[in-house]
């Protein structure tokens, strides 16, 4: 379990977190949903270890965290194949070529493996970034608006690719979004964040198997209603 104990964080006199507490179960997908500027990315950066906090403690996280950023941060000088290989190389006793192909195929970029990032669309780059995050062995995967700016069909395609990777290699996923669809389709648990300092206004568990959610529109809409009526 990941535990945040009394975490506080201020940027000068702007207090984003004040004695913030949270426990996250292992191997689940959880989501921070909230208005722009409430502190979701700050929280994710603190969990990832890329941002220092002022006080409190965090348990259950080693240094081995994958992070999918809003901008994909692929290596511009490397092909798609080599972007994936780069993170696989640190694993011993694996067939790097075979695994690279597997990850590229899951995100349906087989025909583009020798392309460079600048030759890809935004959605394709996001797919590489997701494949790379799974290729990198870690217990925890953090994602900041991973499907942002994609049209609905592409988003669904990417969510399916993501779930295929996750089902094969369960790990704890914490992601940030202000897109209700993403939250509803992926999460075991949604935390609604709001306020300054930020608070968990509500937490909701989604009890529909993830792969069935797209088809179960009515059930999903019940959750949607609950989430949109929270004040
Ligand atoms: N390095 C920083 N220095 C000063 N202020 C910052 C810094 N990083 C974030 N902030 C401020 O902290 C607040 C929370 O920012 P954060 O990026 O965590 O919000 P968010 O909920 O992720 O927003 P969005 O959904 O728009 O990405 C904002 O008011 C932002 O301006």
From TrEMBL:
- Top-level taxonomic group: Bacteria
The ABC transporter domain, residue ranges: 2-220
Provide the alphabetized UniProt keywords.
ATP-binding, Nucleotide-binding, Transport
Q: Does the keyword Amino-acid biosynthesis apply?
A: no
Q: Which InterPro entries match?
A: AAA+_ATPase (IPR003593), ABC_transporter-like_ATP-bd (IPR003439), ABC_transporter-like_CS (IPR017871), ABC_transporter_ATP-bind (IPR050166), P-loop_NTPase (IPR027417)
Q: Which GO terms describe its molecular function?
A: ATP binding; ATP hydrolysis activity
Listed PANTHER family:
ALIPHATIC SULFONATES IMPORT ATP-BINDING PROTEIN SSUB, TAURINE IMPORT ATP-BINDING PROTEIN-RELATED
Query: What is this protein's record name?
Result: ABC transporter ATP-binding protein
Task: Give the organism, scientific name.
Answer: Vallitalea guaymasensis
């Amino acid at each position: 379990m990941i535990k945040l104990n009394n975490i506080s964080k201020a940027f000068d006199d702007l207090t984003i977190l004040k004695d913030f507490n949270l426990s996250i179960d292992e191997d689940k997908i959880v989501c921070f949903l909230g208005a722009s500027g409430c502190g979701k990315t700050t929280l994710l950066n603190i969990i990832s270890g890329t941002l220092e906090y002022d006080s409190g403690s965090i348990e259950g996280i080693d240094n081995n965290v994958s992070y999918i950023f809003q901008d994909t941060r692929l290596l511009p000088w490397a092909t798609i194949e080599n972007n994936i290989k780069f993170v696989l190389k640190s694993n011993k006793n694996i067939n790097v070529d075979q695994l690279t192909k597997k990850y590229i195929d899951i995100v349906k970029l087989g025909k583009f493996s020798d392309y460079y990032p600048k030759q890809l669309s935004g959605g394709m780059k996001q797919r590489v970034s997701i494949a790379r995050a799974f290729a990198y062995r870690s217990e925890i995967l953090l994602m900041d608006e991973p499907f942002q700016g994609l049209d609905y069909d592409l988003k669904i395609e990417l969510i399916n690719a993501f779930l295929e990777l996750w089902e094969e290699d369960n790990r704890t996923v914490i992601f940030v979004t202000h897109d209700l669809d993403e939250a509803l389709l992926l999460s075991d648990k949604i935390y609604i964040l709001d306020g300054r300092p930020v608070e968990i206004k509500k937490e909701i568990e989604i009890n529909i198997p993830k792969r069935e959610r797209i088809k179960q529109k009515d059930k999903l809409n019940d959750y949607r209603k609950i989430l949109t009526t929270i004040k």
